[in-house]
Amino acid sequence: MSSQGERSAAIADQERIEMLRTMVRIRKFESVIQNKFADAEVPGFLHLYIGQEAIATGVCQALEERDYLTSTHRGHGHCIARGLETDRMAAELYGKETGYCKGKGGSMHIADVNAGMLGANGIVAGGIPIATGAALSAKMRDTDEVAVSFFGDGALSEGAFHESFNQAGIWDLPLLGIVENNQYGEMTGLEEQHPPSALDDLTIYGEPYGVTRMRVDGMDVEAVYEATLEAVEQARNGDGPALIECVGYRFEGHHEGDSQFYRPDGELEEWKQRDPLLTYPRKLIDDGVLTEEEHQEIEAEIEAEIEDAIEFARNSDYPDPQQAYEGVYSDGGEQA
Amino acid sequence: MGYIVRMPQMGMEMDQGEVVSWEYEEGDAVEADDVIVVVESEKATNEVNAREDGVIRRIIVEETEKVEPGTPIGILAGPEEDLAQYETQIDASLTESADDGDGERRSSSGQSAAATASATRSETTDRAADVRASPGAKRLAGEEGVDLTAVDGSGPGGAITEDDVEAHLENADDATDETTTSAASSDEPVRASPGARQRATAEGVSLAAVDGTGPGGAITERDVEAHVESGGETATGASRTIRETRELSTVQQTISDRLGESYREAVHVTLNRSFPTGTLREVKTAADRRDLDVSLTDLLLRAVGTQLEAQPEFNALFEDGQHKLVEEVNVGVAVDADGGLLTPVVPAVSEKSVEDVAAARRTLTRRALDGEASIDDLSGGTFTVSNLGMFGIDDFDPIINPPEIAILGVGRIRDDGTMTLSLSFDHRVVNGADAARFLDGLVDVLTAPDALCEYFDADVSPAPDLDDRELRIETTGELAGRVASAYGTVEFDEPEAVGGSGSAPSPVDHFLGALGSCLSLTVRQLASRDDVGVRSVSADVVGSPDRGPLETVDVRLRIETEADVETVNALVDEAERTCYVARVVSDEVPVRLDVDVESP
Amino acid sequence: MSTAAGDVEEMAVRDVINQTLGEEMERDDRVYIQGIDVSGRGGTSNILKGLDDRFGTDRVRNTPISEVSMVGSGLGAAATGMRPVVEVMYCGFLGVAGDQLLNQVAKMRYMFGGELDLPMVIRTKNVMGANAAAQHSQALHHWLAAIPGLKVVCTSTPADTKGLLKAAVRSDDPVIVFEHGGVYNRKAEVPTEDYVYEIGEAAIERPGDDVTVVATQNQLWNALEAADRLSAEGISVEVVNPRTISPLDTETIVESARKTGRCVVVDDTPLSYGTQSQLSATISEGAFWDLDLPVKRLGVDNVPIPFSPTLEDEVIPGTDDVVDAILDLA
Known about the structure:
The structure holds 3 protein chains of 3 kinds.
Chain A: H1 4-8, H2 13-38, H3 53-61, E1 68-70, H4 76-82, H5 86-93, H6 127-140, E2 147-152, H7 159-171, E3 175-181, E4 184-185, E5 188-189, H8 196-199, E6 212-217, H9 221-236, E7 242-247, H10 267-272, H11 276-286, H12 292-315
Parallel strand pairs in A: 1-2, 2-3, 3-7, 6-7
Antiparallel strand pairs in A: 4-5
Chain B: E1 3-6, E2 17-22, E3 29-30, E4 35-40, E5 45-49, E6 54-59, E7 66-67, E8 72-77, H1 84-100, H2 110-130, H3 135-144, H4 162-176, H5 194-203, H6 221-229, H7 250-265, E9 268-276, H8 278-289, H9 296-310, E10 316-319, E11 322-325, E12 331-333, E13 335-337, E14 340-342, E15 345-346, H10 354-369, H11 375-378, E16 383-387, E17 406-410, E18 418-426, H12 432-446, H13 449-454, E19 472-475, E20 480-485, E21 488-493, H14 507-529, E22 534-544, E23 552-561, H15 565-578, H16 580-584, E24 591-598
Parallel strand pairs in B: 12-16, 16-17, 23-24
Antiparallel strand pairs in B: 1-8, 2-4, 2-7, 3-6, 4-5, 6-8, 9-18, 10-11, 12-15, 13-14, 17-18, 19-20, 20-21, 22-23
Helix pairs in contact in B: 3-4, 5-6, 9-10, 9-12, 14-15
Chain C: E1 8-12, H1 13-27, E2 31-35, H2 51-55, E3 60-62, H3 67-79, E4 83-87, H4 98-105, H5 108-111, E5 121-126, H6 133-136, H7 141-145, E6 151-154, H8 158-170, E7 175-180, E8 187-191, E9 203-206, E10 211-215, H9 217-231, E11 237-241, E12 244-246, H10 250-260, E13 263-270, H11 275-287, E14 296-300, H12 309-315, H13 319-329
Parallel strand pairs in C: 2-3, 2-4, 4-5, 5-7, 6-7, 10-11, 10-13, 13-14
Antiparallel strand pairs in C: 1-8, 6-12, 9-11
Helix pairs in contact in C: 1-8, 3-4, 9-13, 10-11
């Protein structure tokens, strides 16, 4: 990653290409998993990030390796943007022992604490207090680490959000909340989840806690990146928490199998015009950063990577049933 | 390029998907994202889009067929593409699911472990099916070298208990040792703690010879110890000498057989429901006042008749494995007769007035008590009521009278006015919720004054829906009728001389009565207000003439008091002015008021 | 267990907690305390008084009244290099932090593959007999013990408070330490040197032959008093202190039950589905063939704890009840 000096100027070409690659990786990974799930190869249930790639990508591009993040039930994009390997992710989704959680977590709980990824989370707003604790820890250990919590618009209705940001506000913690406004909380639209006074700017929920508030286009990876950079820098300087609303759209259902009865006709098509996987390569080509051929190469290369990841997952072993009893405590097994 | 189209997995709770419609036929070309097939799971209908351009080369699962998620339903491939590779994959996946036997797809996943577990379970079941014996029985049998297959089980479902093994051992002893005491071979099961049993076995002590000091006389390990220490001398078993053996009468024998059969066969469950009997007793009191010979049992019987009509599944028999609903509602009443328990049957309860029910029941009961009950009296029942309230019983679990499927037990009216109804029903035929509804409906009737009053031919209604000073007049004949008020009913009739039947006061009599009553009361009230001591007030009222329109009314008030005449006259004057009834009397009919003042 | 042979000091439980946390904070500067009024007032029972002066308000950290973030941020800090000791004022308030306890704290290590250390302590207290009414008078250790992934200990005596609290702070797993308001002022001898009790190890507080009483916290003191009284009547009572509720030291408990053949279990949780039921089942499974009589359970009757002293006394077992239960079996 580049230094802050370069960032404050225009975004470096290399960084722009890196962001494109991340978005392509998220999209391809999930599209393949979507089919494998439909074919009943992948067990459980599945929440896809397709459509929101620019948000995870832009945010994580602005972070350093030492920073922490917590994620949500819709967490594949965050994991990939954070740099987790698609093969071990696929293996986790397949329930294999080579997965990030040895097959104990699955889609909703992928974590790699060594990479500062404190876990996807099956409970709406469940990760926010944890990120708050990581921010507190960063401060108490006298580091300049920052903790980022991704959550959806729905999490703003949970008490955990308010308790955490209140505490972070009092303690000036380096906590950054990313509100991914994808227009729906599960299968209910935004206007049934929040009062009219909040709809135009969901960061209003952070106002009493004294957070820095920003609102960006969640389909524009560079806008997300730049806003995050600013918030991260502020947090590192000890100026306290921030809340960034990224306005985007969920292209798929709440989970796979969702018939999406609630979507008005034409809404999806309209948002798809702004699909970052269409608009961003075009922009980079227009700006002369990328050629059409290079774009095709990136697509092909990542396609092959994902294919390998799926093969890795398929060929990995299921965990020995006895492993169900391991890892409950530091001393190993379950209780007598 | 190309891929196998599979039944999509559409969420966690999906077991099967149905192919609702193929949008293309074999050979049709499709483009990526076209809807190629519509499928439906238990939860939702979904469209399946083509993942790439191609041709629908094969339709494997036809419309309306159902398959598990992941099952191949078709092949989408290039127009000329060789399908061999797809077919091999499909064969493999079909073989795999055939191997699994139960159609599981993920053969190497936890589901195979589940299959193993279920196999293990069934083995266990098989082993257990050989001999059903308790752990204690198995241990003792092992220690004593007893073959459990030779032991008779007395436990649930014929399971062999530790007692059975002991009995088996002792019987074996009996066979070889004639001196064994009768106490030791008693059939009474021995209640002993696990520790005591273990100790007794170790010491070679027969538990039947040990005195128990634990709860309910249970033998504890210490008791065994004490027994061993005392050399077994302390045991003094209680003895039983048969004083008299009574043969069962034929009737009693029949009852015994039938109830025994019922208890063994029918799955008895008893639900209890308590309710306040205030309304029931009020109506009974109202009936008593009218000299109607109706008991609480009769009211209950009649109400049961209504509920049996509402829930015909209870008015039924269970015979030959069939639940037979019966048209007639014939309710048996358990009677404690000399020869044993008899249940004469009151026929067609739901069609009778409660007076008729009472009459029928009295006749039947008398015949049963006198030993004169006929077969007809005792047969045809569809339901039974057993009332032990008169014996002071709160509630009990009655045994169903077969082939009926339910019986209602009636308890006493407790001091707090509540009574418990206990409905035993055959759970093979009806369920607990049905029975709960039965009791609920019955209690509804028994606590509703209107419903109870309607069971009477006679009018017993206190017309509680009327307000004060609101009266409902019904004419019951040309010149007779009744006046219902919130507080009771009075009848009126004209004298025979004018064409009535003279069974009750005439309306004019009622009016004159009201006038006299009101004046009397008013005098009392005023006396009380002014602290004038008045012992009694009574009045004679005479209207004249005795036929036709009233021309004069004479009221003679008799007042027993110590007050002086002047005070009394003042009271009476005021009473005449203020009496509410007097005030509505028009001046056209003069009311003359005389006063007799009596000194006590 | 590493025990101390040597100097002892008579101390009250409340002072032991203060001293022990102070020692652990001296020993390891990653250990810090957070909760409501932990600085200033010294926590809800004033037990922590003075620690803020010694270690500063950064390490004795007042939180807003936010149980969710108090517990959740403790978890996040534990996952990223700190060793938090969170105080939840009354155990009844654990419910406010329900999701964090149930779905985050308890499951994070396991769901993430078993490698993640979560060295956090949640201190809270059971309260009985303080006329504090139902929300502030509860014992809930059975509640959390039913969640795999948490370790649950109950402190009862000055000595076990020190040994268990040190063990909890040094554990790499989340440990819920249930203190008891009724024993804070109990005094007894405590070894002065540094020692740690094994989590999962019970103790025989008083050996005996006739009847075993397994008892926790305030009921442990009642049981010891009952044993004293009954020894005068020639009944020898063995008193077992489980110390840890999850994991439970089944071996020690079952061994005692097998020896005496008669057991009373007594605890301040409700009688139905309370700790007593787990203890009773454990004994029945492990000692069935040596039992002379069914295990007797004593606990709080199945009502919320009432406020008025006469009502509260009615539903909480006291020493007399323990004596009666023992006599029923002896």
